[in-house]
Amino acid sequence: MLQKIVIKVNINCQICKTEVLKAVTKLTGIDKVSVDGEKGMLTIVGDVDPVLVVRNLKKIGKVPEIISVGPPKPPEYCEEFKFRECRPCPPSCRECQLIFTSYPYNDGRTCSIL
C-alpha cells in the first residue's frame, strides 16, 4: 500500500543529508524521497515499512522521530487537464497530416521522406 511517511531527523550538514539518503534508499518499495535540511524533515513516499526506515536511520547514529504516516496526496491537475483517464490520440490531425515524398536516384535507389 502506497503511503507517505514524514520523519524528523537531525540533519546538520551535507554529509548528514547524504548519509540519511543512502540509509533510506537501500530499502525496496520507495517511490520518492525528499529531505528538508532546514526543518530536519525526511519525507518518503512508497510501499515501505516505517519501522524499517527508522531502523536504518538508527544504524547510522541518527535519532529519528516519526511525525506522520498516511496516504500520499493525489497529484494536482490544473482545470484544463481535469480528466484522469488517458484517451488514445488519433494517428494524425488535419494540421499535421503525413505527407509522403519519394525522390528517385539514377542508380535505381529511392529516398523516401515522410
TrEMBL record:
Provenance organism: Castanea mollissima (Chinese chestnut)
The record's keywords, sorted A to Z, are: Lipoprotein, Metal-binding, Methylation, Prenylation
Q: Which residues form the HMA domain?
A: 2-65
The similarity comment for this entry is: Belongs to the HIPP family.
Query: Which Gene3D superfamilies has this protein been placed in?
Result: 3.30.70.100
Q: Which GO terms describe its molecular function?
A: metal ion binding
Which InterPro entries is this protein grouped with? HIPP (IPR051863), HMA_dom (IPR006121), HMA_dom_sf (IPR036163)
- UniProt protein name: HMA domain-containing protein
